[in-house]
Amino acid sequence: MYAGSTHSSLYAADPQPKILILGDSLSAAYGLEQHQGWVSLLRQRLIDQGYAYTVINAAISGETTQGGLTRLPQLLKEHQPEIVLIELGGNDGLRGQPIPNTKANLAQMIELAQASGAQVVLGGMMIPPNYGPRYTQMFSQMYPDLGEEHNVAVIPFILQGIADQPNLMQADQIHPTAQAQPMLLDNIWPVLMPLLNKDRSQALSTPLIHAA
């Protein structure tokens, strides 16, 4: 440093781009320490791979699509995310809610997020056949249908390779264990990664050096 001059590191005024997770207990790390959940693992993977995104975890255990729809407008206004990952519907299915209602709620959430300028990732779910094969099939088909109708990326089944492995599920056989969380993230990552913009995230987090 030259005598008589000072240097200050000023960061770009724009905040880091944000990823909003709107989900239920599967994203809220139910039964686990928060750092064990897949959302915390996602934060670390983004750092490790050079993506400077802020991850907002707005998941609530027990959340339904109606609850998510009610909360989403304020979340969009507050955080202005670039990506919204919607992981909802499982609780609707477990409660036997009418599938047209669940689908309509998910569609409205997708439309709200898209109208805000965000890209959307939809987390697909499957449910046990408690309500019969027709309901179960209609429920699982709802997600790819929404993806096609609204041109959004869909994770086929976020618990793929996990839900049918009792040792990877907690005692309730509904929520995955800590051991399963990296696998859950691996199911999500291939669909989420193509939407990430490394150049933009790095630009927003790069210090700008000014000499006085």
Question: Would you give an account of this structure?
Answer:
The protein has one domain (15-203): Rossmann fold (3-Layer(aba) Sandwich), CATH 3.40.50. Helix content is 41%, strand content 16%. It has helices at residues 38-48, 65-79, 90-94, 99-115, 133-150, 181-192, 198-205; strands at residues 7-11, 18-23, 54-57, 83-87, 119-123, 153-155, 207-211. A five-stranded parallel β-sheet has the order 3-2-4-5-6, with helices on both faces. Strands 1-7 form a two-stranded antiparallel sheet. Strand 2, helix 1 (38-48) and strand 3 (54-57) form a beta-alpha-beta unit. One of its GO terms (molecular function) is phosphatidylcholine lysophospholipase activity. Residues 21-179 form the SGNH hydrolase-type esterase domain. It comes from Terasakiispira papahanaumokuakeensis. This is Arylesterase.
Reported for the largest beta sheet, the result is:
5 strands, parallel
Task: Give the amount of beta strand, in percent.
Answer: 15-25%
Number of domains: 1
Shape from CA axes? globular
Tell me the CATH architecture: 3-Layer(aba) Sandwich
Strand tally: 7
CATH fold title: Rossmann fold
List the uncertain runs: 1-13, 203-212
CATH superfamily annotation: SGNH hydrolase
Tell me the name of the CATH class. Answer: Alpha Beta
Q: Please bin the fraction of helical residues.
A: 40-55%
Pfam family, one: Lipase_GDSL_2
Protein name: Arylesterase
InterPro entries: Ester_Hydrolysis_Enzymes, SGNH_hydro, SGNH_hydro_sf
GO molecular function: phosphatidylcholine lysophospholipase activity
What are the main properties of this structure?
41% helix, two-stranded antiparallel ribbon, disordered C terminus, five-stranded parallel sheet, Rossmann fold
